[in-house]
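Moderator note: this is an archived Q&A kept for reference. The question asked for a predicted structure of one protein chain; the sequence and the answer are reproduced below.
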Amino acid sequence: MGVPGPFTSAAGTPDGPAMGREEVDRVLTKLAAEHEAIESSLLALQDHAGRRLLEGAELTGVTKERWATTEQAVSLLWSYFDAYTDALGRAREVRARHRWPTAGELAELTELLRGPGITLPSSATLTGSPLLSEQLSLDRLVDRMNRWYAEALDVIVTADAVWSALPARIDMLSAELHRTRSLAHSVGVRPGEHPSGDDLERITAELTALRADVVSDPLAFWKQKKSGSSAPGGGSPDTERYDRAARALEDVRREIEAVLDVRQDAERRLMRLRDVLSRADRTLAEARQARGEVLAKIAASEVPAVSGPPTALHEQLVAAADYRRRSQWHRLSPLLESLEQRVDDELLRARESLTAVTAPLAVRAELRGRLDAYKAKVARHGMAEDPLLVERYDAARRMLWSAPCDLRAAEQAVLRYQQAAAEALVPRQAGPTDHGTQGARHE
């Protein structure tokens, strides 16, 4: 994998003269320490929790393929370690013959420690070699063990990291999904009846499939670091599918909360809609009645027609009540929003219709009030018995209090009375002022 392994050969290469006694002793000491380190690393690999999980799992996909190779590599690592142990044992045995080894023994030790004297069975599936066996030096043996160890550790650590991270999170999300489904069922959000109910079914199926995929093929859920690190387990679990399911569940949860709000508020909103629509109906009925009165009492006036009750709104209000009774909140919510605006508009329209219909009566009332106001003003100035004013008042009054009333003629009659009153009152109002002015001048 391109990274230093846990095993470092101390033997060197066979090129050059035979090793001296001190060099042999130094190499053997280092090989003994290396042997212990290799054994510890292999035992740790053997006992790794990830390896035990891989051995007991029913694997699929890329994990199945890579674990098959890794299992063979781990098995070969022990075979290579045994060969390493044997080579070290033979070298120790030769060195133990004499305190001061002979030249022949030093040559033999040099060959053992540096030469390709280790015979190993073929590992064709891992190395691609067609040979039944191969000869390796301690250096090449350790290099190969390093490579296989790193590859095996990468598979084991990666699988263990995915299994340690994702299944627990999926289980927690599944528990949240179960709670959400229970809440959804309580408010009538069910598959086939509400879009969110269908979404919950899809999320349930996705989490079930996701967990099975993670358990059987953990290596498929691993993202290598962008930096290209080749260290074992260099990356992080791929949570894209999990995150997508979590977001979908959050969206459904918010939708169900909205449904809960609708359920809790539905009765109040329905009562208000009934009340507003009832007021609109009463206002329209009043407008229709007022129109008949206006047509009977006012002549030469255009009175707008009054529409009938809003049948469509009444039908939709009945449908809204049925949705509430059947807990079909996903249909009730948009219908209530639409009805609230339309019912308010209907009440406003009914009031405008009543205002338009009763406008002639308002005009007549205003003319009556103006006529009486001028009569009272004339009376305050002592001119109530003026023949012209009495004649014009009576003419205007007859028009305004007769049925049907001609508003145009009545308005002209009121204007004539106002003009006559104004002409009669001007001398009276100016007289005292003139006397006062003359008196002031006399003084």
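Archived answer notes: Residues 433-443 have pLDDT under 50 and may be disordered.
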